[in-house]
């Protein structure tokens, strides 16, 4: 799909096995995420019909292609499991801190946020740079999945895992990046 049509949701190109590996990396093989993702990959239209409410907010309908259905399900499952948070580009500092610090991998990795370093007049890109600088000695980062909108789908991970995710998302490596 082309980003130029603002009425369509842009979803990156990923193959089934790659989608499952992405889910596993970001969720640390979370059983619920992996089970549901396998269900979706095995029967995308059936998954769409069984979970239509998930897709309504993405303006999807029963004519949506299987790949779109799987990508939206991936983001939804990761968000439901608190492995990613979907944040608006103009997020408030307090909300940003709250949602990032409640991510499962933020807690698992023992990360912290030095709130006094984040200026409330800045935005996510500036805050992400500060956090990535703060966490670089721990080999961790705040990353973003580009969903083709002005929102951020943020997650925390080890830097070496981000490199694998970049490979899985495709040759242009622009669909998942260290958040900046």
Give an overview of the whole structure.
The protein has 180 residues and is α+β, with helices and mostly antiparallel strands. The protein has helices spanning 16-27, 31-42, 44-50, 52-56, 66-80, 93-101, 104-108, 124-135, 159-169; strands at 85-88, 140-145, 151-158, 176-178. Strands 1-3-2-4 form a four-stranded antiparallel sheet, sandwiched between helices. β2 and β3 form a beta hairpin. α2 (31-42) packs antiparallel against α5. The chain starts with 15 loop residues before the first helix and ends with a strand. The model is unreliable at 1-13 (pLDDT under 50).
Largest sheet: 4 strands, antiparallel
Question: What is the CA–CA distance across the termini?
Answer: 25 Å
Binned, the helix content reads 40-55%
Structural class assignment? alpha+beta
Overall strand count: 4
Radius of gyration: 16 Å
- Strand content range: 5-15%
Mean pLDDT level: 87
The order of strands across the largest sheet is 1-3-2-4
Q: N-to-C SSE series?
A: HHHHHEHHHEEHE
- Which descriptor suits the 3D outline? globular
Helical run tally: 9
Contiguous uncertain segments of 5+ residues: 1-13
How would you sum up this structure in a few lines?
By secondary structure, the protein is of the alpha+beta class. About 50% of the residues lie in helices and about 10% in strands. Strand 2 and strand 3 form a beta hairpin.
Topology:
Blueprint: H1 16-27, H2 31-42, H3 44-50, H4 52-56, H5 66-80, E1 85-88, H6 93-101, H7 104-108, H8 124-135, E2 140-145, E3 151-158, H9 159-169, E4 176-178
Antiparallel strand pairs: 1-3, 2-3, 2-4
Helix pairs in contact: 1-2, 1-5, 1-9, 2-3, 2-5, 3-5
């Amino acid at each position: 799909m082309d980003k130029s049509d603002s009425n369509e949701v842009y979803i990156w190109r990923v193959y089934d096995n790659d989608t499952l590996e992405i889910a596993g990396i970001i969720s640390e093989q979370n059983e619920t995420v992996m089970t549901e993702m396998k269900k979706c990959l095995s029967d995308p239209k059936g998954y769409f019909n069984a979970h239509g409410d998930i897709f309504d907010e993405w303006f999807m309908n029963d004519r949506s292609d299987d790949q779109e259905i799987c990508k939206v399900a991936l983001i939804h499952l990761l968000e439901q499991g608190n492995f990613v948070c979907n944040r608006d580009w103009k997020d408030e500092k307090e909300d940003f801190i709250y949602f990032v610090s409640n991510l499962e991998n933020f807690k698992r990795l023992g990360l912290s946020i030095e709130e006094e370093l984040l200026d409330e007049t800045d935005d996510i890109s500036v805050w992400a740079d500060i956090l990535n600088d703060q966490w670089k000695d721990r080999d961790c980062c705040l990353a973003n999945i580009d969903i083709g909108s002005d929102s951020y789908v943020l997650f925390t991970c080890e830097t070496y895992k981000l490199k694998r995710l970049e490979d899985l998302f495709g040759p242009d490596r622009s669909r998942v990046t260290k958040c900046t």
